Prior knowledge:
The protein is an alpha+beta fold and 168 residues long. It has helices at 2-13, 15-22, 26-34, 53-63, 73-82, 90-99, and strands spanning 131-136, 139-144, 153-157. Helix 1 (2-13) packs antiparallel against helix 2 (15-22).
Amino acid sequence: xxxxxxxxxxxxxxxxxxxxxxxxxxxxxxxxxxxxxxxxxxxxxxxxxxxxxxxxxxxxxxxxxxxxxxxxxxxxxxxxxxxxxxxxxxxxxxxxxxxxxxxxxxxxxxxxxxxxxxxxxxxxxxxxxxxxxxxxxxxxxxxxxxxxxxxxxxxxxxxxxxxxxxxx
Length: 168
């Protein structure tokens, strides 16, 4: 609607006055006339001090060696520096590990099996007994597990339950 009105008024009043009359920003008008910007992305040049494939393989071999298999790249970097060996920077160690899909916990750790949710199965009456006690509005509700037997609901006042059986 504003576009149609603006296009009719602009030749008569000029761009600045037509923008004021229709409530349109002049920057929007000029931006739409210019059209979209077309930028060509050129590939990023590789730095002159980039490690060669052989050097990167040597760094990866050191990181995966038996001596450093449980160490972080920072520990490997500083250990090698203490010994007088410089292979690459610490960030390059991380970059090489990331390129090879090895940025993870490097220490050997035990993995725990997935926790299995216990399942109660009754193949005959009086095999499985299960209950849940909840306190809601001064009433104690006790009911059996719905999946194993028909629901048993017993509602009693909290005054009917002995004080030793009450929870806080």
